[in-house]
Amino acid sequence: MDNFIFQNPVKLIMGRGMIARLSEEIPSGKRVMITFGGGSVKKNGVYAQVKEALKDYFTVEFWGIEPNPSIETLRKAIALGKEQRVDYLLAVGGGSVIDGTKLISAGLLYDGDAWDLVLAGKMVTDTVPLATVLTLPATGSEMNNGAVISRHETKEKYPFYANYPVFSILDPEVTFTLPPYQVACGLSDTFVHVMEQYMTAPGQSCVMDRWAEGLLQTLIEIAPKIRENQRDYQLMADFMLSATMALNGFIAMGVSQDWATHMIGHELTALHGLTHGHTLAIVLPATLRVLRGSKGDKLLQYGERVWNITSGTRDERVDEAIRRTEEFFRSLGLTTRLSEENIGMETISEIERRFNERGVRYGENGDVTGTVARKILEQAL
Amino acid sequence: MDNFIFQNPVKLIMGRGMIARLSEEIPSGKRVMITFGGGSVKKNGVYAQVKEALKDYFTVEFWGIEPNPSIETLRKAIALGKEQRVDYLLAVGGGSVIDGTKLISAGLLYDGDAWDLVLAGKMVTDTVPLATVLTLPATGSEMNNGAVISRHETKEKYPFYANYPVFSILDPEVTFTLPPYQVACGLSDTFVHVMEQYMTAPGQSCVMDRWAEGLLQTLIEIAPKIRENQRDYQLMADFMLSATMALNGFIAMGVSQDWATHMIGHELTALHGLTHGHTLAIVLPATLRVLRGSKGDKLLQYGERVWNITSGTRDERVDEAIRRTEEFFRSLGLTTRLSEENIGMETISEIERRFNERGVRYGENGDVTGTVARKILEQAL
What we know:
alpha/beta, 381 residues, homodimer
C-alpha cells in the first residue's frame, strides 16, 4: 500500500424527498445562482422542488450548461454571477452541470478569463461555496473536487480541480425518467471509474480491491434489472450510490491508478461529440487487450472474483475476462467499436498526434504514449 | 435503502513516516496536550517521533488513560488541560486513548463534571480540536465521532459522541510490536463492527453489503497471515485500513444496524474487565444462534459470499455460517465461551437485570431485551 492522504468533506444527503432540505443546508440570506442543463428538470419535477425549497432566498437561474461543459458557456454564467453578486452556487443536473459549476465557483472570484484556471492545471481553493442536486448518476462529480472542461473552439478537453461541493442531494426518484441511453452511459462511466482505480497491479490493498470488486459486482447485478425497470427505487438507489462511491476517493486509498482509457475517451468526445460513458465502453476493452501483459495478474483476479472465471489457461481466462467486459457494455445497449460509430483511422491518427505533441504518458506505469494509444484505438476498430 | 445523511470530515494520513507530518497539520502556536495510555509508545519509537515532530510547540503530556477509559482518570486530564490552557489535543494510542480524549475535548470547554456530558447522551459539538496518532487498529475511533466511557466506581459503561478528529495519522509500522492478544482483539473488534452494520436484513443496499463482505473477506484472508508474521507491512496496512473503514460510516449508508452484541459485550467488560474485542468474540456467535430466525436470510447470504457455503439445507447452511464465525474467533487465539473465562449465571442475571432496569431494546428490530440478552448469554456459556 502506498502512503496516502484521504479527506472528503462532502455532506451526502440521500433519499426520497431530500431536495426539500435545501433550505436547511444553505445559510439564509445567501444570493444563490442555480445552474441547469436543459429543460428535463422542469418535466420531472426537480425544478419545482428546488424552487419551492429556495422560495425565501434571492435566486438567479443560469440555464444551458451543455454536456461536456464549454468555457464559452461558462464565461456567460460567470459574468451573470458577478453581475448579480451571487455568493452561493447550486448545480442542479448531472456531471456536466456540476463540473461546469465548479469552474464557475472558481471563476466568480478570479479577475481574468476562467480558461486560464483550466490551463494552469492547479487546484483552485478560492471558490464560492457550491452545492448540488444530482439528476444523473455517472460522473461522481457530486462528491469529488474534479471537473472536465471543454473548449469547443479548439476541440480541447481538460481536467480541472477546485473545492468539493459543500453538500450533495441524491434523490433516486429523479432518475426514474432519465433517457435509457443516459442511464446506460452512466452505468458504463461508473464501471470504468472503478476499473481505472482497480485494473492495475494486484496486491496493493486487499480492502481497496474488495471494495472495487464490490462496486463492479453491484453494477453487473443491477444493470440488467435497471434496463427492465428503471422505476425500481432500490435499484436506482444502488446505482446512484455506486456512481458516487466510484469516484469519491473511497476506493483509491494507497493504490495506483490508470486513467488512460479516460484520456483517450476524452479525445473521442472532443473530436466527435460522443457521450463520455459511451467512449469508455469502446476504449476500455481495447485498452485491456493491448495492456494484457502488464495487467495480466489483475485481469486474472478480476475474472475470478467479478466474473467467476475459474478454469482455462491463463491466456484463456484473460481473454474471457476481457470478452465479458465488452459483453457487459453491449448488454447496456452501447456499441463497443469505433467502426460502429463511423470513427476511423483519421481520428486515430489525430489522437496519436495530440498525445505525441503533448508528450503525455498515461496509465499506472506511464507507458500509454501516443503510439500505445494508436494501438488501443486500432484494437477498438 | 433508507434515507441517510453521511459526512465524515476526518483527514486520514496513512503510511510509513507520516507521524513527522504532525507539524504540518497542527497550526503553529497551539498549546497541545498529548494524551497517552501506558508506556509502550516509549518502547516502539512512537513517543520519540511525536516529540520530535512537535518540538517547536508548547506541549503538556497526560499519561495513563487506561483500557476502557474511566471518568475518574479523564477528570484529571481535564483539570490539567484547563490549568495549562491547552487549545489542541493529540491522542497517541489505541481506541481507549482516543475515546478518552474525545471526552477531554468536550470537558475542557464545560464548566461542570464531564460525567454529566456522558449521561446527557447528546452529541457535544463545542470541543477543543483533537487529532490522533493511532497505535492499535481496532475501534475505528480515529475516524468517527463516538467513544465509550466507563465509570469504575459504579461499573457502568456508556457511549458518548463529540466532534470527529481533525486528522488521524496511521503508520502501519507502529503495529509491528503490539502484543498478539491485542492484535487478536483488534481483529475481532473490527470483524464485529462490520457484522453489527451488516448482519441484519438483506436487500437494503447491494453496495453496502458488498463493502461489508469485502471487509470480512479481507479480515479472514489476512488474520492467519498476521498471526504468522506481524511485521508484514502490507498485511498490517490492510488490517489498519480495515479497522478504520469498519466504523467510519462508510458501510452504514442507508442500512439498518444491530449493536446488541456490543451492548452485551460492554457489560462483560464493565463487570469482569474482559478486553472489548474478546467479549465480542464470545457474544456474537451466541447472538447469531439466538436470532437465527430474524437474521436467517442474511446469514445465508453471509455464508455463501463470505464463507463459500453453497450446499446443504437452509438450517445446515445457517449452522455452518455460525460455526465458521466462532471458529474464526478461535483461530485468532481467543476463547469464545463464558465458561472459559469463568463467567457464569450470576453475571448473566446481573446483565439481564441491568437491561430490564434500563428498559432497553437493542438490535435492528428492537427485540433484544433483558430476557433475550439472557438467552444469548446462556448460549455463550
